[in-house]
Amino acid sequence: MRRHDAADTPANYSGAALKFVRVNAGATALEFHVPVLGDSSDFPTYSIATAAMLLRTKVDGSGLEWISPAGASAPALTDLTDVDNTTPATDKQIIYWDNTAGKWKYRDDTFLALKDTPAAYTGKGGQYAVVNSTEDGLVFAQGVSGAFSIDYSFSTTTTDADPGNGNLRVSNATQNLSTVIRADLLDKYGSDWSAALATLADSTNTVKGYLRLYNKVDPTKFIFFTVSALASPAGYKNITVVEVASSTASPFAGLDVVTLEFTLAGDKGATGATGATGAGAASFTALTDAPANYTSAGRKTVRVNAAANALEFIDAPYTLAFYQEPIMTNAQIVYKFIATVPFTLPSGLSGSYANAEVASTGNVHFDIRKNGSDVGDIVFNISATGSFTLGSDQSFAAGDILTITGPATADATLAGVATSLKGYLT
After folding, report:
1. Do 418 and 332 share a structural domain?
2. Could you tell me if 238 and 156 lie in one domain?
3. Which of 135, 207, 211, 350 is the most core-located residue (most Cβ within 10 A)?
4. Which of 212, 201, 206 has the alpha carbon at shortest distance from 176?
5. Does 297 lie in the same domain as 332?
6. ∠ CA 259-263-267 to the nearest 5 degrees?
7. Per-residue confidence in pLDDT tens, the chain, 426 aa
8. Three-state SS across the chain?
9. Which phi and psi angles does 172 have, rounded to 5°?
10. Is 308 a domain residue?
11. Is 114 contained in some domain?
């Protein structure tokens, strides 16, 4: 029996080339048919009205629909099933692939949003981003600069051994005769200063830097040293020093909170080869855009002038700065500095600044003293901004002492005093 002999099939193949067989609409027999897209139940019908329209999947995934390329809204990125359809919380976010979720997701376009960076800035003020020890990301860490200070508990023991967590000791019972300072790698609060301490001898100069030990509660008790070498036994540092000045022979008692303050000396410059004399000027002062001579220019530096058309000699700037955080006590010494190079504070202290985080309630005078003698004032007159008086230029030689002393009766509110004194090298 052949297929077209059956009662429920077409009678012959005439005109049926390339057609398919399907059940007829009455569901009673088979028929030849040319399938078209519009026959699908999830396919929209088409007519002259749908000419030039585009076909897309419906947002709910239930089928297809016609859209006008000009009038209809384009499909959104969040319509895709592998994209997180949560609307971003803020502008300027980036899209990234979340392999765990198996979707594209949004995140903030910020440093903290990256996968290899710290998660928050909280508590990291003033720190730097550095590569971590496993070299697979960044972490925040204390920066190491030319100057830093570390608080320790002072130990009166002098033996060469680890002074213990948070402790510092010196090598001689007469403290200002000590030639070695033994500093633990941890400060008295438990913070690790290994990286900073390792830089104490980085300078190529014979004098590696300048180190001051002082009593944190009473800064008038101090010893000032130069640093020449550094050794690294397990757990602490041995710092080779030479005493320059001190308040007394042994200013520190056991368990005093002492601050180690260090300033790194600059590297020794290499001596360059003498260059051949050129066809032009034989000396700096012979140049047409340089000063004509060196008269009265001792220890001055060179800069481009205000008109930006020549060079000029100027005093080399020298700035002294200090900060006093808490409310002060009566007649408190808030700053004491021993000059290592000659410098001058100019009359009136032009270019200097003083500011307090909490304003004074009265007229507050800080005495500026040179070697114990009053030479000027810093004044806060019911204000958070200070003014200066300095009757004449004050020149300091190496070893001279500059002291800033608070009023005999401390102001009730003045606190957080930051001061920068602008001078110049002489």
Report:
1. yes
2. yes
3. 211
4. 212
5. no
6. 155
7. 444 456 778 888 888 777 777 778 787 888 877 665 545 566 666 666 666 677 677 767 667 777 766 555 555 666 666 777 776 666 666 777 778 888 877 776 666 667 777 777 776 654 555 556 566 766 665 443 335 789 999 999 999 999 999 999 999 999 999 999 999 999 999 999 998 899 888 888 888 888 999 998 888 899 999 999 999 999 999 999 999 999 999 999 999 999 998 887 766 655 666 655 555 555 777 777 778 888 877 767 777 778 888 778 787 788 888 888 777 889 999 889 998 888 999 999 998 999 999 999 999 999 999 999 999 999 999 999 999 999 999 999 989 999 999 999 999 999 988 899 998 887
8. CCHHHCCCCCCCCCCCCCCEEEECCCCCCEEEECCCHHHCCCCCCCCHHHCCCEEEECCCCCCEEEECCCCCCCCCHHHCCCECCCCCCCCCEEEEEECCCCEEEEEECCHHHCCCCCCCCCCCCCCEEEECCCCCCEEEECCCCCEEEEEEEECCCCCCCCCCCCEEEECCCCHHHCCEEEEECECCCCCECHHHHCCCCCCCCCCCEEEEEEECCCCCCEEEEEEEEEECCCCEEEEEEEEEEECCCCCCCCCCEEEEEEEECCCCCCCCCCCCCCCCCCCHHHCCCCCCCCCCCCCEEEEECCCCCCEEEEECEEEEEEEECCCCCCCCEEEEEECCCCEEECHHHCCCEEEEEECCCCEEEEEEEECCEEEEEEEEECCCECEEEECCCEEECCCCEEEEECCCCCCCCCEEEEEEEEEEEC
9. -135, 140
10. yes
11. no
Paired residues of 56 in beta bridges:
65
| Residues 336, 421 within the same domain | yes
Q: Is residue 42 part of a domain?
A: no
Chain position carrying tokens 């300033």: 263
d(CA 104, CA 385) in angstroms, rounded, equals 54
Q: Which domain holds residue 298?
A: 284-312
The model scores a pTM over 0.90: no
242, 160: one domain: yes
How many domains does the chain contain in total?
4
